[in-house]
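Long-time lurker, first post. I've been practising inverse folding by hand and with some scripts of my own, and I keep getting stuck on stretches where the structure tokens seem ambiguous. Below is the full token string for one chain I'm working on. Before anyone asks, I'm not after the true native sequence, just a reasonable design that respects the backbone. If someone could post their per-position residues I'd love to compare against what I wrote down in my notebook.
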């Protein structure tokens, strides 16, 4: 297996940034700042007109940063050796990319056969950044973490908006109003951001996670660790799936506790699997009228049995929200973080205006899709 292989004959490779086509997607995979840095790497950059509009980055800012602003997506698709995206383009556009092009973004290709076939037929070298190894070196490229932080922040704001209560304690002429009790389920990046945000809003905050090592993180943010007597510490910083007995005991204790909670934000996830069901319909039925559940796992089925992805419903006085793509609601900062993640990854591929793959670099070898055979050149 050769250490490096060049894939472009040009003096300088062209990097393309297209408008996102997924419904409601406002983010962009490159900002004027990261375009300037890509140009400094020796690359030419083409940006489709309006690509940054949803995140309030005007075409003129991209042009000032050194990009060519082009309205024709087809021309960019056919010219660019590298395409940067937030979400994967649809299969029809993938079929029109130049043969052997590089595709970088949060691609979620495993469950889309049409996109997978298009990538294979065009010989596209895809790098779904959600496949990055969870190592210290990869942190600067970790789109899952950067976007989860925005999602956790927005989730608490949604909970505060939907709740018919104040979050902070208030002392008024009409008497003292106690602070709302907020429970955050899952202490990953989104959960920790949710805990910090709820605390800033003045709520009494608890955090629950089946990984006992998260206690210190929750408490460092001013939250109280909710111990339900169930541990599911897994590998790579993720939780393992609970056994049936563990899940039953967790649910029994959690159901009792939820009777005194005003707002819940759920963020629990197991990579490559549907979201674990943590809150049952019976638990929701036991909550006080006016309570709120905001389910960040709605896109993968939801942590709450009553979640309807993309909808907010009221069931016997309890409000259940299943927002989708929350990071897009904070498109400016979410795009800035996402674009820096992408820039840091692309810096592994582009040097002196040329593309070269070092397949001895685990960040490339373990991220590329389809997975490479060890014997591949």
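-- Answer (accepted) --
I ran through it position by position. Result:
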């Amino acid at each position: 297996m050769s250490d490096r292989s060049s894939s472009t004959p040009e003096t300088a490779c062209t990097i393309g940034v297209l408008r996102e086509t997924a419904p409601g997607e406002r983010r962009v995979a490159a900002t004027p700042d990261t375009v300037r840095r890509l140009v400094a790497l020796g690359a030419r950059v083409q940006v489709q007109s309006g690509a940054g509009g949803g995140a309030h980055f005007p075409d003129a800012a991209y042009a000032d940063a050194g990009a060519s602003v082009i309205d024709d997506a087809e021309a960019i698709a056919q010219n660019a050796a590298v395409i940067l995206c937030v979400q994967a383009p649809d299969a029809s556009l993938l079929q029109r990319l130049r043969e052997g092009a590089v595709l970088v973004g949060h691609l979620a290709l495993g469950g889309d056969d049409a996109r997978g076939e298009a990538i294979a037929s065009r010989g596209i070298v895809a790098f779904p950044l959600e496949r990055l190894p969870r190592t210290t070196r990869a942190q600067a490229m970790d789109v899952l973490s950067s976007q989860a932080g925005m999602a956790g922040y927005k989730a608490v704001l949604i909970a505060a908006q939907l709740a018919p209560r104040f979050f902070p304690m208030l002392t008024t002429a009409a008497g003292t109003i106690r602070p709302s009790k907020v429970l955050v389920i899952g202490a990953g990046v989104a959960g920790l951001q949710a805990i910090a945000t709820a605390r800033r809003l003045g709520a009494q905050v608890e955090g629950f996670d089946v990984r006992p090592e998260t206690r210190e993180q929750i408490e460092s943010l001013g939250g109280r660790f909710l111990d339900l007597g169930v541990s599911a510490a897994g590998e790579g910083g993720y939780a393992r799936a609970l056994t049936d007995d563990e899940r039953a005991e967790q649910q029994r204790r959690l159901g009792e506790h939820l009777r005194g909670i005003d707002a819940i934000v759920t963020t629990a996830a197991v990579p490559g699997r549907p979201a674990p069901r943590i809150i049952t319909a019976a638990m929701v039925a036991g909550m006080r009228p006016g309570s709120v559940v905001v389910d960040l796992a709605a896109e993968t089925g939801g942590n709450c049995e009553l979640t309807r992805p993309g909808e907010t419903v009221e069931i016997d006085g309890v409000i259940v929200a299943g927002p989708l793509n929350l990071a897009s609601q904070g498109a400016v900062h979410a795009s800035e973080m996402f674009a820096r993640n992408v820039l840091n990854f692309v810096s592994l591929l582009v040097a002196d205006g040329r593309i070269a793959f070092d397949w001895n670099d685990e960040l490339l070898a373990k991220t590329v899709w389809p997975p490479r055979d060890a014997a591949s050149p």
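A couple of notes from the structure itself: DSSP finds twelve helices and 18 strands in the chain. Residues 1-10 have pLDDT under 50 and may be disordered. Happy to go over any region you disagree with.
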